[in-house]
Amino acid sequence: MMNVSRWKVILVVLATVFGLLFTLPNLLPAKVRDQLPAFMPKKVLNLGLDLQGGSSLLYSVDTAALRTERLTNLTEDVRSTLREKEIAFTGLAVVGDAINVRITDPAQVSDAANALRQSVGAPLASTAGGRDVSVSTAADQRLRIAFVPAAFEAETARAVEQNIEVIRRRIDQMGTKEPDIARQGKDRIFIQAAGESDPERLKNIIGQTAKLTFQMLDEGVSPEDIASGRVPPGSEIIPSTDGFAPTYVVKKRAVVTGEMLTSASPGFDQQTGHAVVQFRFNGIGARRFGDVTRQNLGKRFAIVLDKKVISAPVIQSAITGGSGQITGNFTEQSANDLAVLLRAGALPAPMKVEEQRTVGAELGADAVNAGAVSALVGLVATLIFMILMYGWLFGGISILGLVVNGLMIIGVMSFTGATLTLPGIAGLILTLAVAVDANVLIYERMRDELRAGRSLIAAMDAGFSRAMGTILDANMTHILSALIMFQFGSGPVRGFAWTLAIGVLTTVFSAVLVTQVLLAWWFRTFRPKTLPIA
Amino acid sequence: MKFWPLIKVLPVRTHFRFVRLSRYAALLSIVAVIGSLALSLFPFTPPCGGLECGIDFKGGTVMEISTAPKAVDLAKVRAAVTNLHIGDVQVQPFGNTSEAMVRFQTPEGQDGNATVQKVQATLKQTLGQVRFSKTELVGPKVSGELFTSGLIGLGLAILLMLIYIWFRFELQFGLGAVAALFHDVFLTFGLIAILDIEFNLTAVAAILTIIGYSMNDTVVVFDRFRENLRKYKRMPLAEVIDMSINEMLTRTIITSMTAVLALIALAIFGGPSLYGLSVIMLFGIVIGTYSSIYIAAPVILLWGVKRSDDPAEPLKPATVR
């Protein structure tokens, strides 16, 4: 052992240089870092959400709602198809997962079934009929129309993809840096945006469906009827946030929808100075809106966002220019947010919150400080303790090993882009404290061997190589537990596991090589006759 | 005689009769384990039993709010949030006087985020200047998944250790190690229950770390034990165990000391979110050291080991490299 081969020395030097090089950017202020020459690494530790603030959100696409929506649309398709073919029917309704309808004329049942088979639903290559809807006949001139099982699966997958697309647009519009958006499992969407100054706002913007419709008010309903919930079949009662009335009765049919907008931007009303959202329709939207406003002068329409009326203005004149503004109960920021939502479009499928974690940037900064202070104190305590126990030389060697170890951990973590979390800092501190265990094992073994009557050099040799087996065995246990944490933990816990695993590897390296090289160097330089720790 | 380095002052070889005390230690441990199990299981409120269940496993919302520099009026916060009728609301002081922690469950059938927004709006209204420094919401589905995977993780960790020790040593060693692990894990659960530390993902991570550390300690003792078994073929098992533990005692003490020092620093300076983690790990290190000596080794004694009568093999350097 005291004849250390050259490659070991080279390896130790390389590792130290690597550690220094990759740790350095973390210590420099961003300005200096940018001016470093090109060959120098510039990556810094990737701080977790809990350290730099931000949001981590997990949504699931609401498949039940999606199913209901699809069935409702299918019902309307069935109705219009049958009307088009002039086939009389009764009892069209959704029953469970399917739609039932009774064809009045027995002679027309098969015609109806054929017509429906050809026109309702969407093409789906993988099914027998080539469409995602199956039509079957039942007793009493009834037809049963249902989606094939594969249809919902395909629909869910598509909805998740489309939602991700919309969310990405929304986040981009807000100027958030490098959001992490990914599909998780069958119907889940995971979003992580770090370093956001106002994670709460981001969260609220992402989660909103933002379905915008323009619907006519049904002004023929008396307040008593509203109170008792009696409204005509084509109308519905919708709550309001406009501050004038708690609810409105609106016609169910949407005149114009949010998809027909081409632009939206926040602004101010020229007369009142209130915050508004200005918008512009595409061709179809502009024409429809123009027609409806011309026909309904003096009446009121409602601007409905996610089943809430945000504004119910009176039509003063036909709006044919294709642009307009939404006045509502807005603040400057909420107008801005709504504009972002309208530009990015509505979420095709409603989402449910499964998990949501947001940390303010200030709390993150506090956590970094607390972590740094405790790491420093813990480290200094370990250093003092080791010097006290083993003296300048052997204590010093273990401390040098510790320093190289620390540099390597930070270096590897910066290099691999691993995420450092708050529990990760705890893992780091514990790793460094336990890292001296390897030195202790080696030193104690050397003392044992010396006591057993070996010569100094033989004792050092034997102490070293025998301790090595123990060190490897013992550290393997940490690797195993880190592995489990990585597999089963989430977010911060994974960061902890990663730090622990890297730490164990570098610990074994620095115990095996750094200590060995330093001890050999000491031995060859000073030719000692006794071990200073025996 | 010099007093520094201290290592020279420590007795060169101790001769404690650990095994003789192991009977009493076993009794103590069994009582402690039963007590801990009782504390952490009763009352049987799912999912965490007697432990203070965090939202990771129970679902619900936790908010950390700050009204800095003003002190936060806890009573006012409590009254305001309770008025929303969203079920069981807990308001606790957290960190310094300008901070508080608000927990609540999302009422059945309501959107979690909508409830959070409602609470935030109410707090803004009542407190005026308020910052929401941290908001965590875990839905019922995810909390169930996290709980299951946490339990599987713990179980799998113990199983893996058993297999590893079995593979590296012998089955008896593995059983001893696993007995020590169960001891450590159960006692840690007991501590979590007694100190009312929140049982969440971080706590599970802390327990997994303890498993790693406790095994580390056990392996070091076992390693010497195995070596001595080969060296002293005729020595009674109990004496070999005692000798091995005594030989490793200095190392055990020094290593636990460094870990304890670092963790104390963490508990003092690490802030409220690391406090639970560091206390659990501190306890685990002490318990892990104790269990290596008093649980893992004596279990082997109970079980016995195969000791071949082959002539003592010459000591080979451990096979590395």
Describe the structure.
- The complex is a heterodimer of chains A (534) and B (321).
- By secondary structure, chain A is α+β, with helices and mostly antiparallel strands.
- Chain A is built from 14 helices and 18 strands.
- In chain A, strand 5 and strand 6 (142-147) form a beta hairpin.
- In chain A, helix 11 packs across helix 12.
- The model of chain A has no long low-confidence stretch (mean pLDDT 85).
- By secondary structure, chain B is of the alpha+beta class.
- Chain B has two domains: 16-45 and 143-303, Multidrug efflux transporter AcrB transmembrane domain (Multidrug efflux transporter AcrB transmembrane fold, Up-down Bundle), CATH 1.20.1640; 60-138, Alpha-Beta Plaits.
- Helix content of chain B is 63%, strand content 9%.
- Chain B is built from nine helices and six strands.
- Chain B has a four-stranded antiparallel β-sheet with strand order 3-4-2-5. A two-stranded parallel ribbon of chain B has the order 1-6.
- In chain B, strand 3 (89-93) and strand 4 (99-104) form a beta hairpin.
- In chain B, helix 1 packs across helix 6 (171-194), helix 1 packs across helix 9 (272-303) and helix 7 runs antiparallel to helix 8.
- Chains A and B meet through helix 7, strand 17, helix 11, helix 12 and helix 13 of A and helix 4, strand 5, helix 5, helix 7 and helix 8 of B.
- Strand 17 of chain A pairs antiparallel with strand 5 (131-138) of chain B.
User: Which of globular, elongated, flat, extended, rod-shaped describes the shape of chain A?
Assistant: elongated
What summary fits the major beta sheet of chain B? Answer: 4 strands, antiparallel
* Helix proportion range of chain B: 55-70%
Largest sheet of chain A: 5 strands, antiparallel
Instruction: Please list the strands of the largest sheet of chain B in the order they lie side by side.
Output: 3-4-2-5
- What is the CA–CA distance across the termini of chain B? 40 Å
CATH top level of the largest domain in chain B?
Mainly Alpha
Shape of chain B: elongated
CATH class of the largest domain in chain A: Mainly Alpha
Question: Structural class of the secondary elements of chain A?
Answer: alpha+beta
Per CATH, the superfamily of the largest domain in chain B is Multidrug efflux transporter AcrB transmembrane domain
- In what range is the share of β-strand residues of chain A? 15-25%
- The DSSP helix count of chain A reads 14
- Give me the CATH fold name of the largest domain in chain A: Multidrug efflux transporter AcrB transmembrane fold
- Computed CA radius of gyration of chain A, to the nearest angstrom: 35 Å
- CATH 2nd-level architecture of the largest domain in chain A: Up-down Bundle
**What is the residue-mean pLDDT of chain B, rounded to a whole number?**
86
The low-confidence parts of chain B are 312-321
- Output the CATH homologous superfamily of the largest domain in chain A: Multidrug efflux transporter AcrB transmembrane domain
